[in-house]
Amino acid sequence: MDGRSARTAGRRKVHVGRSEEIQLEQTVVDRLYARLDELRSATRDRLARTRRSGPSGSPQNRSERDAFATLYEDRVAQLDGVEDRLVFGRLDLVDGETRYVGRVGLADAEHTSMLTDWRAPAAQTFYRATSARPDGAARRRHLVTHARRVTGLEDELLDLDAAGDVNASTLSGEGALLAAMTAGRTGRMGDIVATIQAEQDAIIRSALSGALVVQGGPGTGKTAVALHRAAYLLYAHRRVLERSGVLLVGPSRSFLHYIDQVLPSLGETGVVSTTLADILPGVRARAVEPPDVALVKGRAGMADVVRRAVRARERVPARDVPVRVDGTDLVIRRRDVRDAIAHARRTHKPHNLARVTFVREMLARLAEQYASAQGEPLSPEDRSVLLEDLRADRDVRVALNVAWFPITPQRLVEDLWTKPHRLVEAAPALSAADRRLLVRAQGAPWTEDDVPLLDEAAELLGEDDQAERAQAAAEAAQRTADVEYARQVLESSEAGGLVGADELADRFAASGPRLTTAERATQDRSWTYGHVVVDEAQELSAMAWRMLVRRCPTRSFTIVGDVAQTSSPAGARSWAQMLEPVLGDGWRLAELTVNYRTPTTVADAARRAALAAGLPVSPQTSARDVAGSLRVVPTTDLLTTVEREVRDARAEFVRDESGRVAVIATDSDVSALRERLGVVGAGPDTPVVVLGPVEAKGLEFDCVVLVEPARIATRGGGPGDLYVAATRPTQRLVVVHAQPLPAGLQESPASP
Ligand SMILES: Nc1ncnc2c1ncn2[C@@H]1O[C@H](COP(=O)(O)OP(=O)(O)OP(=O)(O)O)[C@@H](O)[C@H]1O
C-alpha cells in the first residue's frame, strides 16, 4: 500500500457488503467450518482408536501406536488452533476461478481444494495484486468473521474490465487493515495474516538462503513480518527446517511473552524462541551491565582476548619438574612439554579435547624415560600398566594440569574478571582503563554481555565428548533402521501426506520420551539451526553476532530492526558497519515504509525529535491519523500530573478485555512512579504498566504517558530511547514534562 491510499483508507469506514453477498459467503464459510469439524472428529476418532488398541503387542507395535497417537494429537492441536478466522479472503480470477484463502489448506473428501493456505504460492496474488498489476485477479475480497459468522465484506476491484457489475457499495480499500490498527490492544500481539501488505509479503516470501536485513521505522510491522516469515519458511521448506529448526532471538523475556501467540495462531509451534541472556544452556544471565562495560565486552576484539585466555592455559613450565613414579626418578622436561603442546595444537581440536593428545604424548615420553632408566625396553603389558600408574600419579597429574589446564567456560571467563593478572595476560591490547572496567567480584551474577564471551570460550574449550560420540554412532545406526521401517508403515497407512518417514521415525524412537527438534535444540549449545530470526537486531554487539553466526553456519538469517532505535552502546547505527565483519557483503536489505501503529501526528513529532538529535531515521508514512493523538502537558508537579493523566487514559481506553496504557519514564523514575500509581505487575494482562524505555522496546499500547522526555533523551540509550518510547502508542501520546521539551517534540512543527 502506498502512503496516499493508506491515508485515504484512514478516513473511510469499513464497508459492510450487501446482505445477499454476506449470505452467499456465509454458505461457503459454513461449508469450510463443517469440513474442519469433520477432519477434527475423524482425527479424534483415529486417536481414540489408536489409544484403545491397548498395551499389548511387540515393542515395535507399541512404538508404532505411540507414534501415531502423537501424530494425531499434533494434528488435533493444529486444527483447533485455526478456529478463529479460519478463512479471511477470497480471490476472483479473471478466468472465472474463485479461491478462498485461510489459515490452513483444506480439501474435500475427493481431494478438491476448498481453502488455500495463506503461505501457498496460489495465495500470493491475494497479497500482492494491485489494480496496476492485477496478476490475473479481478477482485480481492476480505471476509470479516466473528465466531463463524460473516459480519462484513470488503472488496477491491483489481481488473476493472473483468469485474462486471460488482456493486460499488461493497468496495473498500483497507477497511480490515484499519479495523486491525484501531482495535484496542490486549497486551498480546496478534497475527496479521488477513491483512499482510504487498511490501511485507515480498519480505515474508523472500528466499530462505542468505541473510535478509529488514530495516524499518517503528510500527512498520518488522516483528509481525519476521514471525510470519518464520511460519512461511517452515511451510515452504518444511523438510529442511523441521529437522534443523528455526531460532528466534528477541530482546527480552517480556517481548517473547508479548509475541508468543502469533506462531501458534499460524499453526506453528516448533520455533525455538530465546533472548541472548538465555541462549546458553545452563547459564542464567540476569544482571545488567553498565553501558561502558557493555561496550568493551561487546567489541569484536574480545574474541582475541578469550582466545589468548585459552592459550594461557597451555603453558610450558618455568623449569623442569622432577617426579618419582614406581621408585624411579623422572623429569617433566620443558622441551617435552613444548613439543607435546605443539603436537596437541596441531590437532586443531578445542582445548579440552586436544588435552587428550597432550597427555598421551607426555605420558609416552615419561614412559620412555622410565624404560631408559630401567635400561631395557618395556613389554607392551608393562608399558600399559606403567601408563596407568603415570596417569594416576598425583604429581604427574598436577604438573600436566599446570601445563594444559582443563577448564570450563564459566571458570575461564570468571577468572578474567576476577584475577587481574589473567586479564593482563589475555588482553594486552586493552587500555588499563578498559581493564579496570571489567573487574568484578568473584561469584557476581552473569550478564547478557558475558554470554557471547562464555559461548566463545565454550567453542574454544569444547567438552570431552568421547562417550557422546559412541552413543551418537549407535543412534545413527538405529535411526537408519527406524526410517526404513517408517517408510514401510507409511506405505500401508492412512497417515500418508501428513508426515514424512523421517518424522515418523523420530516418533518410533523407543528411547525415552520423544523430544521435538525444538527441545533437542534448546538443550544443545552446539545445535546449528536451519534459519535464525533476530528481532531488534540493531542492539547486538559484534560478539553477539559471532555467537549467532556459529548457530547458523549456512548464514540463513532474517535480521529485523531499526538503526534509529538503538539503545545499547555496543549496538549499531549502520547495518553495513555491524554486519560486514560477520557476514561480509553476504546480506540483502529490504525496507518497510508504512507505520501501522502510530497516528501520523505522534509519528511526526517522534521523528522530528529523532532527526533533531541526528539519528539515522528511516523515511515512513503513517497509515492513519487520529484526532487529538498528541497531548503535551507542562507541569511543575510530575507525579500528580502523571497520576491524573493515567486515570483519564484508563477511563478512556481500558475496556473489559482490551485497552492498555503504559507510563514510560527513565529507569531511575520507574519505581517512584510505580509506587505512586500503585502499579505492581508489568505483564501483558495488566491494563496499566510503568516501564523504562528499553523494557518498552517492541511493545505497543493504546495510550502512552511519556514522562519527562528531556531526561529520557539524555540517559541510557539517549535519543534512541526517546524515539522508542514516543512511538509505542496506537491511539494517543501524552507528554508530561517539567523540563523544556527536546527539540522537535512540540505539538505542531516549528516550521511546516
Ligand atoms: N499488515 C498489517 N495488518 C495489520 N496490522 C499490522 C500490519 N502490519 C503491522 N501491523 C501492526 O502494526 C503494529 C506494529 O507492528 P510491529 O510491532 O511488527 O512493528 P515493528 O516494526 O516491529 O515496530 P518497532 O520497531 O516499533 O518495534 C502491530 O500491532 C502489528 O500487528
From TrEMBL:
GO terms for cellular component: cytosol. ATP binds at G216, G217, P218, G219, T220, G221, K222, T223. Coiled coil: none annotated. One of its GO terms (molecular function) is DNA binding. Gene3D superfamilies: P-loop containing nucleotide triphosphate hydrolases (3.40.50.300). Residues 45-65 are annotated as: Disordered. GO terms for biological process: recombinational repair. This is AAA family ATPase. Keywords: ATP-binding, Helicase, Hydrolase, Nucleotide-binding. Residues 195-599 form the UvrD-like helicase ATP-binding domain. The keyword Ion transport does not apply.
